[in-house]
């Protein structure tokens, strides 16, 4: 029952109880007292003061009665006013409860419509992918393979088949009917897709079909057809026009969906016996209904041969409800599913829907009875007043919350605009994908770098076959090894370098990628973000630097050799003076130093480019360490080197290169040690490895610079009082040589205390009778 506000106004227009249009009689004390003449008795004249006393008493009684009547009248007036206000307030509250119940029913309907729209969105994306890619292929087998892969990637319970229906001569010149169709074999669940051309015949003439004509005139929008039945199975068809690169129409692409999945969603949504949720097409065909079996039985009993629910309409449903008496006392709401035009209905029993409204009306009636009974009228009025104040406070609080929400929403919009501006202004390319690998965000740099492959809505697995990235070694990177795919599995990928080919041109680019997963509050991976930077110019600059160093080294070797040869020839002349001999010896030492620098530059350049050659053989390590110590001691006579020996240990490697690496490490240890301080060298066996430990008590290396000491041309003490000169290539060469021998080089240093370097190499279990020599080239250290 619903009481409108007009009822309250009609009640207010009535006259309160006891208030009429008749004149109100005057109170007794206002009536004129009857005047009688003064009687004279035997005792004489009556005392007039006695008569005045009786008049005063009558006036007091009349005043009391009038006061009582006025109090009763005021009580009745207050009761009427309270009743009117209570009924009016109740009308407003019940109206609000009724609107809230209707809003909740509408929300349940919208929620179901949203779920249906979400389910259809995957089919839309599949349709978009098929329509976009089909417009670029001109070979049948490529198109057929694409359709098979797309159908295999689609949910088996949702998508039945895919088709591309070409305009005359668009795929095969001179052929009018050309429509490859790939569908699932329903009889063999999980089997391979079935490719057929059986509908590409004049008998079917797909050019005249409604779905084909609607898609041709839709301008590229997705069109959904009315449901149809084949072999007792209901389907829906999505269709969209296919255009080539010049924008000319090539045909129409279709996606056929099973309607059974939507029926399951409707059955799950119908969890209350007092409410029925069902879906109909734009033309009124029933797509899903919780009473499907009863509807089909009713239609068949009337002589209609129906196979599926979609052959019935809303008119049939209304007729069935009328015959079953289900159209009385129910409220119906309707919501449209976006983009497809499906209509979602909710039919709810009004007794359940407006249960709170009826409960409110009964409460008001009880309150009125209690009020007019005179029991607790004041307490009820105060409670009602307090409830009103609470409601006002609630409304004020809601208003404040709404204002706060609007303020926060404005801040979010501002932050979103700032974030968007930052993304668009970034030089690095930023791409975000959802949990299934669909691109949801790409900034301007990403679109410039990757082209159409980075557009929103594109799946990574559909782009990968056409744009396969390669590693720096030239090998294709598998799809599962891509940084974005690894992040979707929860991995943090840092500084991964790969090679791509630009979609618009054959230019190859070298990218450095960082990728990370995006998690929700529960820690589940819901998306991934990848940041890519084009380092092609940096790699090219690094190559040019290496080429320059190599060419400079080659160009310097010849004049240095000439200078040393002339100096040596001058020393062999007859009776050279002592001064001339010293000058010639200085020239030879300078040339030798420059020759070492040139060789170091050349070795570093070849190591960086992967061209440094190694001649490996069995090498006795203790003798090699002795040779390196002898070289170092000759250059640093004031820093003794102490060696802890081992029995003869053999390794497989290049004797000259290993000697070069050991000499560089010992030279560094002695160079940065105080005069008189020794260097400790120890050889130890660790399983299948031999470790060479070099320890000095020198100046050490600052903590923030330890990670860079193995970089080319980096000197930790450059520009400081501890600068000892050099090119900064010694540790770089030593580490590269050790890595090419399957070993490792580790450094531990404390500033002001000293440095320990550990060189580990795989050792041979026993010496072979003959030395096997091999020639190999290193790979780039960056690889």
Q: How would you classify the helix and strand content by structural class?
A: alpha+beta
Number of strands: 26
CATH topology assignment of the domain at 612-777: Heat Shock Protein 90
| Major sheet description | 7 strands, antiparallel
CATH class of the domain at 612-777: Alpha Beta
Spans of at least 5 consecutive residues whose pLDDT stays below 50 are 1-53, 768-783
Tell me the fraction of residues in β-strands, as a range.
Answer: 15-25%
| Count of helix runs | 18
Architecture of the domain at 612-777, CATH level 2? Answer: 2-Layer Sandwich
CATH superfamily of the domain at 612-777: Histidine kinase-like ATPase, C-terminal domain
Structure, described:
It catalyses: ATP + protein L-histidine = ADP + protein N-phospho-L-histidine. This is histidine kinase. It is a multi-pass membrane protein. Pfam families: HATPase_c, HisKA, MCP-like_PDC_1, PAS_4. With 783 residues, this protein is an alpha+beta fold. Among the domains are: 116-258, PAS domain (Beta-Lactamase), CATH 3.30.450.20; 426-532, PAS domain (Beta-Lactamase), CATH 3.30.450.20; 540-605; 612-777, Histidine kinase-like ATPase, C-terminal domain (Heat Shock Protein 90), CATH 3.30.565. Helix content is 44%, strand content 20%. The strands form six sheets. Strands 3, 4, 5, 6, 7, 8 and 9 form a seven-stranded antiparallel β-sheet that branches. Strands 15-14-18-17-16 form a five-stranded antiparallel β-sheet. A five-stranded mixed β-sheet has the order 20-22-23-25-24. Helix 1 runs antiparallel to helix 2 and helix 2 runs antiparallel to helix 9. The longest helix is centred in the first third of the chain and has 87 residues, at 48-134.
């Amino acid at each position: 029952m619903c009481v409108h506000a007009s009822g309250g106004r009609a009640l207010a227009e009535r006259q309160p109880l006891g208030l009429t249009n008749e004149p109100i009689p005057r109170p007794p004390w206002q009536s004129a007292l009857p005047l009688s003449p003064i009687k004279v008795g035997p005792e004489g004249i009556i005392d007039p003061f006695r008569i005045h006393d009786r008049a005063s008493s009558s006036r007091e009684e009349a005043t009391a009665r009038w006061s009582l009547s006025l109090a009763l009248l005021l009580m009745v007036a207050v009761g009427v006013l309270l009743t009117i206000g209570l009924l009016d307030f109740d009308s407003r509250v019940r109206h609000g409860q009724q609107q809230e119940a209707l809003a909740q029913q509408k929300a349940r309907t919208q929620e179901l419509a949203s779920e249906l729209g979400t389910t259809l969105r995957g089919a839309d994306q599949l349709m978009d992918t098929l329509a976009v890619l089909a417009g670029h292929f001109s070979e049948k087998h490529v198109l057929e393979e694409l359709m098979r892969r797309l159908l295999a990637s689609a949910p088996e319970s949702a998508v039945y088949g895919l088709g591309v229906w070409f305009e005359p001569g668009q795929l095969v010149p001179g052929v009018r009917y050309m429509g490859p169709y790939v569908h699932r074999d329903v009889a063999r669940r999980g089997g391979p897709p079935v490719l057929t051309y059986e509908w590409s015949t004049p008998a079917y003439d797909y050019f005249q079909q409604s779905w084909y004509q609607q898609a041709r005139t839709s301008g590229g929008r997705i069109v959904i057809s009315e449901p149809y039945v084949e072999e007792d199975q209901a389907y829906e068809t999505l269709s969209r026009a296919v255009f080539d690169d010049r924008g000319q129409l090539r045909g129409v692409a279709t996606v056929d969906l099973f309607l059974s999945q939507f029926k399951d969603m409707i059955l799950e949504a119908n969890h209350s016996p007092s409410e029925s949720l069902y879906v109909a097409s734009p033309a009124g065909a029933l797509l899903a209904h919780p009473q499907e079996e009863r509807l089909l039985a009713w239609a068949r009993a009337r002589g209609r041969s129906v196979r599926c629910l979609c052959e019935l309409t809303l008119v049939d449903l209304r007729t069935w409800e009328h015959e079953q008496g289900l159209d009385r006392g129910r409220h119906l709401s309707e919501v449209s599913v976006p983009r497809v035009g499906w209509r979602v209905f909710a039919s709810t029993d009004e007794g359940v829907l407006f249960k709170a409204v009826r409960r409110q009306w009964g409460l008001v009636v009880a309150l009125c009875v209690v009020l007019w009974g005179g029991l607790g009228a004041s307490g009820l009025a105060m409670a009602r007043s307090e409830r009103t104040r609470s409601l006002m406070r609630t409304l004020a609080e809601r208003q404040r919350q709404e204002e706060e929400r609007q303020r926060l929403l404005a801040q979010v919009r501002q932050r979103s605009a700032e974030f968007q501006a930052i993304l668009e202004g970034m030089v690095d390319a930023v791409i975000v994908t959802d949990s299934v690998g669909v691109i949801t965000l790409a900034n301007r740099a990403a679109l410039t770098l990757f082209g159409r492959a980075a557009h929103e809505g594109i799946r990574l697995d559909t782009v990968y076959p056409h744009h396969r990235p390669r590693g720096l070694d030239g090998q294709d990177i598998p799809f599962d090894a891509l940084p974005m795919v690894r992040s979707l599995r929860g991995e943090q990928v840092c500084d991964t370098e790969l090679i791509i080919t630009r979609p618009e041109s054959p230019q190859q680019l070298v990218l450095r990628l960082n990728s990370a997963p995006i998690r929700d509050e529960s820690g589940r991976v819901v998306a991934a973000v990848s940041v890519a930077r084009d380092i092609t110019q940096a790699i090219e600059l690094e190559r040019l630097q290496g080429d320059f160093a190599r060419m400079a080294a080659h160009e310097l070797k010849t004049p240095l050799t000439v200078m040393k040869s002339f100096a040596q020839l001058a020393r062999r002349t007859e009776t050279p003076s002592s001064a001339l001999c010293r000058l010639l010896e200085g020239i030879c030492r300078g040339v030798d130093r420059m020759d070492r620098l040139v060789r170091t530059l050349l070795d570093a350049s070849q190591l960086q480019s992967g061209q440094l050659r190694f001649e490996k053989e069995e090498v006795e390590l203790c003798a090699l360490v002795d040779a390196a110590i002898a070289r170092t001691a000759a250059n640093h006579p004031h820093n003794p080197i102490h060696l802890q020996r081992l029995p003869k240990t053999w390794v497989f490697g290049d004797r000259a290169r290993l000697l070069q690496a050991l000499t560089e490490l010992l030279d560094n240890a002695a160079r940065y040690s105080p005069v008189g301080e020794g260097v400790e060298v120890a050889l130890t066996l660790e399983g299948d490895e031999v470790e060479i430990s070099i320890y000095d008590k020198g100046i050490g290396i600052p903590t923030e610079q330890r990670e860079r000491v193995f970089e080319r041309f980096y000197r930790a003490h450059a520009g400081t009082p501890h600068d000892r000169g050099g090119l900064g290539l010694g540790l770089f060469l030593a580490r590269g040589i050790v890595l090419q021998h399957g070993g490792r080089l580790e450094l531990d240093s404390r500033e002001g205390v000293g440095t320990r370097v550990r060189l580990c190499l795989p050792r041979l279990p026993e010496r072979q009778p003959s030395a096997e020599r091999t020639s190999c080239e290193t790979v780039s250290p960056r690889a």
